[in-house]
Amino acid sequence: MNQFQYVRPSKAQAAIEAVAKDANATFIAGGTNLVDLMKRGIATPQKLVDINRLPLTKIERENNGLRIGALALNSAVADDKQVREKQPLLALALNAGASAQLRNMATVGGNMLQRTRCAYFYDLTMPCNKREPGTGCGALEGINRMHAIFGFSDKCIAVHPSDMSVALVALDATVLVTGPKGERRIPFADFHRLPGDTPEKDTNLERGELITAVDVPDGPFTKHVHYQKVRERASYAFALLSVAAALDIENNTIKAARLAMGGVAHKPWRLTAAEQSLVGKPATEETFRQAAAVAMQGAKAFKHNAYKLKLAPNTIIQALKTAAAA
Amino acid sequence: MAMNPEHDAPAGHDEARRTFLKQSSLLTALAFVPAPVVDAAAANLDEKVAGAIEKVPLKLEVNGKKYKLAVEPRTTLLDLLREELNLTGTKKGCDYGQCGACTVHVDGQRVNSCLSFAVMHDGRKVTTIEGLADGDKLHPMQEAFVKHDGFQCGYCTPGQIMSAVACVREGHAGSDAEIREYMSGNICRCGAYSNIVAAIQEVKNGGQKV
């Protein structure tokens, strides 16, 4: 691993300045992805700004919702009483990710900023526009079993690996960031980006901007929720794909719905058209089947991931059925 | 398993190598870092100090013993434990957070020691497999692993046991299914899983202090 300078500011402003003025500096929180990338030579920061001592771990009530500090651990959020009561979908998604040890290290902000697990991104001998812009996409004509079926470009077909983010985009969360130019709020759906011609950029954060918290507004989704994750072993594996489903049901009629998918695009994939198709309908398998068909419009597979065109609608239906029965 | 490497470890080739590394890095540290700078840096690790020295001061309590160290920032907690503190009970399996062999407790929480830099844990309390037993008396989880044959080759065992203790303390050992889910971060190539689950069940149901 390359040598680097290590600093540990106690104030957010100092941390932001340190990263803003140095293109080779980066924040480190839990480190569960960054240390991995540094060991492999994929990330080579010259300076690490350790933000673990910043006071950003609280989970509290704020403006008709929960404000979750960016440094709250994944395990702490998943076990939090308020989260389990108000946003059970978030707790389910968090517990579907990684392992108990990793959830004790990984933070909310870091989870959002983790890089893709595309094998070509991880293999330094292979071309990858995300790792090294202009070298091409190895997955496009390569082994693309794990890859995107929505929103990809000819520069990158990688998927975002976070489970937590799939729940947060479904729950209309907002990301709070502070940067050299001050504070701003980013709707969760606009936080991550599609690859386009610049797949090296995973998010719309600017240099030096620090995630401070995530706001999750209260909603009616406290009972009929489910996070369905499909993977190659029962636990501790990244998703082939996943579905976050939340329903508000009264007299067997769907009053409101939220639906998002993971493992299918460069960002957590919100399915608003499918949500709208559910509203006002009876909570039956037929309704769910129609919503799944709406969700799949525009999907396109590559050589090795055509199975996702079948697996995705089936998983949507399964997630909605389980949510309705919860 | 309760072996204290400072007293009981054989002084073989590996030991000599570790001692050499330890001494040489200590000499490097002494050459580059005047004591007052280390103390000042420990109090306030600002940019100026970290840039001026190669090593960063680190205070750590490991298995009840306090250490005042100077380490390179790129040293992982796992490498510090094994190579600098000679606590080789914690194993390096994959070194990428995929196998769990390196599991230790930091401030009581189980973590993968391979995936964080030691300097990030300044002021924290670390417990490794060497710190689990009470003298010669094995921890109940260690006893249960022996009784139920919770291992074959033994390489994943320190990580499994540290994780298992945390699993019970966290209250995630309510059923076989829950144990399997919350132990999924510890891979056992020999496939001793069913015996590991049995060992955890016994400790959980035994009512001993874990």
Automatic annotation (TrEMBL), chain A:
The keyword Flavoprotein applies. Keywords: FAD, Flavoprotein. The lineage of its organism: Bacteria, Pseudomonadati, Bacteroidota, Cytophagia, Cytophagales. SMART domains: CO_deh_flav_C (SM01092). Pfam families: CO_deh_flav_C (PF03450), FAD_binding_5 (PF00941). Residues 1-221 form the FAD-binding PCMH-type domain. The keyword Transferase does not apply. This is Xanthine dehydrogenase family protein subunit M. InterPro entries: CO_DH_flav_C, CO_DH_flav_C_dom_sf, Diverse_Substr_Oxidored, FAD-bd_PCMH, FAD-bd_PCMH-like_sf, FAD-bd_PCMH_sub1, FAD-bd_PCMH_sub2, Mopterin_DH_FAD-bd.
From TrEMBL, chain B:
The keyword Nucleotidyltransferase does not apply. It comes from the Bacteria. Gene3D superfamilies: 3.10.20.30, [2Fe-2S]-binding domain. CDD domains: fer2 (cd00207). Keywords: Iron, Metal-binding, Oxidoreductase. It holds the Pfam family Fer2_2. Residues 56-132 form the 2Fe-2S ferredoxin-type domain. InterPro entries: 2Fe-2S-bd, 2Fe-2S-bd_dom_sf, 2Fe-2S_ferredoxin-like_sf, 2Fe-2S_ferredoxin-type, 2Fe2S_fd_BS, Aldehyde_Oxdr_Iron-Sulfur, Beta-grasp_dom_sf, TAT_signal. PANTHER family: OXIDOREDUCTASE WITH IRON-SULFUR SUBUNIT, OXIDOREDUCTASE, IRON-SULPHUR BINDING SUBUNIT-RELATED-RELATED. This is (2Fe-2S)-binding protein. It comes from Hymenobacter lucidus.
